[in-house]
Design brief:
The protein is of the alpha+beta class. Helices cover 30% and strands 37% of the residues. The chain has a single domain, classed as Alpha-Beta Plaits (2-Layer Sandwich), CATH 3.30.70. A 4-stranded antiparallel beta sheet has the order 2-3-1-4, covered by helices on one side. The radius of gyration is 14 Å and the shape is elongated.
Length: 114
């Protein structure tokens, strides 16, 4: 039922404390309806021409495409990484009641809520 106005955003962080801080801020500021925190993942990636391996936490954020820029700015303010992963994937379909709840939790047209 969705036309990809809804997105799922993946964000990796260095610790559970950082995950909790970012998740709390996104929901409080009405930039995310829900944030799942996956506590332990291993990431293998290239950074500054070297292959790295780190333990991280993963945030799975349910939000709206029209607030992505504001959400990314909030994450960058709170994130410890120089270049954090903030990737939005379209939600191509979903339970209509869930998507209505998402819309009511993340109003269209962003507004500043501190």
């Amino acid at each position: 039922m969705s036309d990809s106005e809804h997105v799922m955003i993946l964000i990796t962080v260095s610790s559970l404390e950082e995950a909790d801080k970012i998740a709390q801020a996104l929901v409080e500021r009405m930039l995310a309806a829900c944030v799942n925190i996956v506590p332990s993942i291993t990431s293998v990636y290239r950074w500054q021409d070297e292959v790295q391996r780190d333990s991280e936490a993963l945030l799975i954020v349910k939000s709206r495409r029209d607030v992505f820029e504001h959400l990314a700015r909030c994450v960058k303010e709170l994130h410890s990484y120089e270049t954090p992963e903030i990737i939005a994937l379209p939600i191509v379909d979903g339970d209509v009641d869930y998507l209505h709840w998402l819309d009511s939790s993340v109003p269209g047209g962003w507004h500043d809520v501190d």
